[in-house]
Amino acid sequence: MKIDQAYRYIKRQIIDGVWVPDTAINVNEVSEHLNISRTPIHKAMTKLSEEGFLSIIPQVGVFVKRPEREEVIERLLVCATLDALMTEHAIKNLNEQELSQMFNTLTTMDNPEISEEEYSLLNIEFHRIIYQAAKLPYTFTLANQLWDYLNYVGNPAMLFSQDRRKQSQAEHWMIYYSLKERDAKLAKKLMERHLTRIADSVSEKYQMGIAQEVVNEI
After folding, report:
1. C-alpha Rg value of the chain to the nearest Å
2. If exposure means fewest CB atoms within 10 Å of the residue's CB, which of 45, 147, 155, 203 is most exposed?
């Protein structure tokens, strides 16, 4: 659909840092670039505004939204709740192949030589396997939207420095083994604690006044 085309294009420009916060978006230029009418572009922008990427000011224009600490923290906490829910449900469906994929992903993440960006991508893969096993399509879609937003406002270099990466990995392995042992209660608790810690880290970043937009991971 043309709306989806416009949505993906605009979101990618923002997440990749091509359009930085407060950048005004020229609808005519987007329309010409994608060779589609303005209507689906406006609908895509409305959706992206609801997801926290854009600010639409009537009679003024559409701008890339500058992340606000309160909104970022709230979305992180919602993400933590959704991840915990899907982790609990994944217990019922996780098969040996998916557990093997998680193990191999975590083993690669243990390598201290990989970059923050590589670690971030592997981290997403770890969580994605859990999402898919949960088989909760609506929650999966909502969680993906939140992760896209958090990837936008996060900073891998800070979240996954060597010291913080060790803690993150320790938590990942505990989540993995609780899933392998089919302990739904423990797995849910560990995932919620893991994401809540990330929320605290991002909150600390904003309090220090070094908020910035780049690609992320949790």
Report:
1. 18
2. 203
pLDDT in tens, 143-195: 888 878 877 776 666 667 777 888 889 999 999 999 999 999 999 999 999 98
Q: How far apart are CA 128 and CA 121, in angstroms?
A: 10
Across the chain, the runs of DSSP E, i.e. the strands, are: 54-57, 61-64
Cα–Cα dist 106/131, whole Å: 16
Helix axes 69-90, 137-153, angle to 10 degrees: 140
Spatial separation of the C-alpha atoms in residues 174 and 185, rounded to whole Å: 13
Would you report the helix, strand and coil content of the chain in percent, each value rounded to 5?
70, 5, 25
SS3 61: strand
Nearest-CA neighbor of 171 among 216, 127, 113?
Answer: 127
Same domain, yes or no: 60 and 84: no
**What does DSSP say about strands 61-64 and 54-57: parallel, antiparallel, or unpaired?**
antiparallel
Q: 19-73: per-residue pLDDT in tens?
A: 988 999 999 999 999 999 999 999 999 999 988 899 999 889 999 998 787 888 8
Q: Which of 64, 83, 98 is the last residue of a domain?
A: 64
When divided into structural domains, the chain yields a total of: 2
Q: Is 63 helix (H, G, I), strand (E, B) or coil?
A: strand
Whichever domain contains 60, its CATH number is 1.10.10.10
Rounded CA separation 124/137 (Å): 17
